[in-house]
Structures are given as structure tokens and as C-alpha cells.
Amino acid sequence: MIAAATTTPLSRTRYGVLGAVSFAHVLNDMMQSVIVAIYPLLKGEFELSFFQIGAITLTFQLTASLLQPVVGMVTDRHPLPYTLPVGMCFTLAGLLLMSVAPSYPVLLLAVALIGCGSSAFHPESSRVARMASGGRYGLAQSVFQIGGNLGQALGPLMAAGVVLTLGRAHVGWFGLAALLGIVVLLQVSRWYSRHIEERVRKRLPSDQPLFPAPVVRRTLGVLMVLMFSKFFYLASISSYYEFYLIHHFGLSMTRATHLLAVFLMAVAAGTLIGGPLGDRIGRKQVIWVSILGIAPFTLLLPHVGLAWTVGLSVVIGVVLASAFPAIIVYAQDMMPHRVGMVSGMFYGLSFGLGGIGAAVLGVVADHYGIEFVYQVCAFLPLLGLLAVFLPDVRPPGHAGAVRKP
What is the pLDDT of residues 82-130, one digit of tens each? Predict the structure, then answer.
């Protein structure tokens, strides 16, 4: 045994705060997912290649990823509760600019502004969820993340009903969601501010390092590789699933968008399951099964008909998504004294890998076809074998322990 500690709840679980940050996450990610949902419209209006489509995703993901660890590190040392509504203001500005962008470079600028809003939102909201968890960290992360997944699923549906029907200028209507998010996050920030003062007075021992540095470095390294597997594969679906359905099965743009929403709903369901399950049975077990367990389904996906494609994508979405809350809490447990930095790093990594994956896969799709993308990406979940190198972190509520695998 390497290290041990008893995890005790800081206080009762604050479901009102968790609900508020989850709802804000719905709004935030709904607005962001509109970008992906209107790719077919943008491709036709600006005469874009698949590489340029991937570059839009890359622009968003890089601005959303590179700044997140920086925000987390700054707020670990100097808490800034009102970062949350300020970030939503960037998203509002990006949406309004996107609705009137006259050229591709301006479109990229609009996407970058939305990415900056995400950089401010995710690490701080993840911190608030942990603060409000009452020690049920997996549950809190799942509640927080389910908001994002629901927003990602609602975005394409609303985009199909509004933007794809009425035109790109109507993206500006989503700014109303940003205004609502600002109001909600102002209330969260007030609670956050009061909780910071209480936390400083108590000097909680749970905020101190629990594990030896070599264990932390090895664990974070393995988790990053598993994140690569997960988010490169998700990039192949979230960015190109509509094109695959249109090209491979001859579906209409609207029907393909609806099926993308079905997949994203499956991702939301998996997110809701993963956190509480990790609290109960252990995060390593959830990570192991959720990443490696989808390999048979991803290998089969490129070779089946439409009905099986939809069914397999639902299974893949549910199982694969269950890993993310477990990974985030696992990383936070490794460095509880750097929750903001770790949250920003892993949320940022998820965005960055998704963006790089979209751009790389866009080049592959331009040269070899969209079907080839799915045939290659089918092997990525096999990297889940690396989970064997993770130490065994027992769920909260047990005698916390890290054991050599």
C-alpha cells in the first residue's frame, strides 16, 4: 500500500448549486454545439473543404483548451468567482459575431471568442461542483457533465429547427441563452464567493496532497493517453457523423442532424452513469470497461447498415462517455490541492484533442474518404489496455487507498 486517507464529506451535498452549474453547462455547451451542427450549412455557404471544417473545430478547441489550465492555475492561487459570468460574455460576443461573419477568417474569430468563454467556464464550474459535492465527487461531476452533454444534444436539434431552416443570421438568437447563463452564473458566483471565505477559515486537510509524486505523474500520464483514445474517437463522430450518414447512406441534412443528436443523448446518458458508478465500484474499473469495452462495437460500426449504425453509435456513446467523469475525479483525487489546474488541464485536453483530431481526420477524409476515417478510428479504443497501469483508488466512503496494480 502506497498511501491512505479517509475521505469525509466537507458538508451536505448542495444540490441547488450543482443544479445551477449543470443548467449553465446545458446553456454553454448547447451554444457551442451549434457550431458543429451547422457545419453542412457553413461548408456550402463558404465553399469549405473538409480540412477547413476541421480547422473551425481546431480553432474552437485550441482556444478552449490552451487557456483552461492557465485559468485553473490562476484561480487556485487567487480565487476569482466572477470569472464564470465574464466567460459567458465572451460566448455571447462570439455568437453575435458568427451570425454576421462576412468571411471565413471572421468566422474563425467568432469561434475563437466562444472558445475563450469555454476556457473560463469549465475549470471554475468543475471546481464549484466539487465544492458543492459534500464528498460525493463522482456524482457531482456526473451532474455537472450531464448538463454539457444535454446541451451538446440539444444544440443540433435547435440548430436544425432554427439555423438550418432560417439561415445563419439566426445564430444570434442563441445569444438569449448566453444572457440567461450570465444571470444564473452570477448567483453561482455569489455562493462561490461565500464558500471561499469559509474554506480558507477551515483549512481543510482534504485539500492537501495525498499521494507520492511518482504515483501522481504515472497516473496522470496514463489518463492522458486514455483521453487521447476517447476524444480522438469522439471527434470522428461529433465532427463527421453527419457527413458519414449523408455520404454513406444518402440521408438528408436534417435527418443526419437528428441522428447526431441521438448519439449525443447517448453520450449524456453515459456521463450520468459514470460518476456515481465510480463512487460505488472504483474509478479504475469504470475507466477500464468504458474505453476498452467499446472496441468490438467500434470495429463493427463501419461495416453495418443504417439501423445497426445508429444502434451501435448509441452503445458506443453510452459506454465511452461513462469514462470522463471517472477520469476527471481520478485526476482531482491525485492533486486535491490543485483542483483548478487539474480540471482545466483535463477539460482543456479534452477540447484540444478533439480539435486536433477533427483537423487530422479532416485531412484523412479529404484524401481517403469519410468511410476510411471510421475504419481507422475503430482501433483507438484498444489503447484502453493501458488502464492496467493505473493504481487502484478506492471510492469515497471507503478507507481511501492507492495500491500498486
Answer: 889 999 999 999 999 988 889 999 999 999 999 899 888 888 888 888 8
| CA–CA dist 194, 331 (Å, integer) | 26
Whichever domain contains 57, its CATH number is 1.20.1250.20
Tell me how crowded residue 371 is: count the other CB atoms within 10 A of its CB.
13
Contacts of 60 (CB under 8 A, 6+ apart): 32, 35, 111, 112, 114, 115, 118, 351, 355
Quote the DSSP letter at residue 338. Answer: G
Per the CB < 8 A criterion, the answer to whether 116 and 67 are in contact is: yes
Place of cell 473551425: 56
Indicate the pLDDT class of residue 1, thresholds 50, 70 and 90: very low
Pairing, β 392-393 against β 399-403: antiparallel
Q: Please give the sequence-ordered ranges of beta strands (E in DSSP) within 317-398, or none if there are none.
A: 392-393
Does 334 reside within a domain? yes
Predicted TM-score (pTM) of this structure: 0.67
* Maximum alpha-carbon separation in the chain: 62
Question: Number of structural domains, the chain?
Answer: 1
